[in-house]
């Protein structure tokens, strides 16, 4: 009898413990699943839990990739509290995270977790082929570049070539300054709207650069107004506004000082050429002007600008395009060919103007017929340069073909095994994760591996999400998805379950995801 009672008590204890374990409301599945990369914004997310939840004490929060709370999601409970349907707003392209916290209706235990996913995002190696240009952004970038480049070039023309010219002849400078301010502020506003986070205007590299450029252009006008004329300090400030763009450009992304300097030289040389042409187009109506001195000097400066543009342009094209096939197979390559075609036309007209100046003005002649013909061709040359700047604006907003982030390789050694984690990209969005397990002598370990799990934890606030890595024929284990859904520091834990060990091999890696 005693044995029977003891056995009964033991059985009841086991049942109670088992029930206690099952009483926690664990997430069984999600639709769409964690890490999904979706083409369009989903209308809902359906979660299935292992136990009934208490909706009064459960919450589901939607976060942006900057870890900003976007919305507390409304939800409905179905199937006696096992299924939860979350209603989602219309989401712009980007990475998102749903952080959930539920209370079990059985025993009152709380469980938490996250569902990261992406909308309209593509892996880094295919982004260049899939990205579509926003026409409004291209036009606004075009207006800013054109106004700022011509403003800088005209100031350089005034200060270095025709120092004695009365400044009333250049009232157009204020018009250019106003356009530069308008388009700079417009591009900054468009960037903030596209990102969807006001703080990105002063916290992200692009937003900070656009803010600095806008501030410098405004400062240039204030300096000119206070001084009563367009002085050298104004030229320096406006040139700084133009050159600042090089530090958030595709060239800066290469982490190559030569590329950044080439981008800067390319912009200033183009500004000198375009602004000087506008000044000439406005002044060539005047007969009483020392054209025998001005035109030869400008021709030499323009020839130098062409040399700098050509040299820096070839270098940047090689660095950004990578292969000849990319010229016609990518948007960036096609826009580059368009820009090159326009510049070829500009150079043809510029060659005619250069020969005209050598023939008629190097010897001091300035016949009216020759001056008028030159004026018409100067305006044609300027118009074609403006079109080429439009092509450059499209280039600036198109991802270069060869900008593919290098993979990050992390190694952890534990219990005589080496666990290597390779991450295709540490940018927020889709990524490819590869785990390799090797012995102390470098041989792959696959026979005894039962399961490889990756756990992604951004913070205690958001919780963690896990993914099972699938084996490949190469002896590695891979997982794909939008698991790095928030910018900032992440902890990735790799757990390897072996049939030859009683405990999992655990490797913890700290990484930082960037936008």
How is this structure best described in words?
With 515 residues, the chain is of the alpha+beta class. It folds into 3 domains: 24-119, Sandwich (Immunoglobulin-like); 127-396; 408-513, Periplasmic metal-binding protein Tp34-type (Immunoglobulin-like). 47% of the residues lie in helices and 24% in strands. The protein contains 13 helices and 17 strands. The protein has an 8-stranded antiparallel beta sheet, with no helix packed on it. Strands 2-9-8-4-5 form a 5-stranded mixed beta sheet, with no helix packed on it. Strands 1-3-7-6 form a 4-stranded antiparallel beta sheet, with no helix packed on it. α9 (257-283) packs antiparallel against α13 (368-396) and α10 runs antiparallel to α12 (331-360). Residues 8-22 and 125-132 have low confidence and may be disordered.
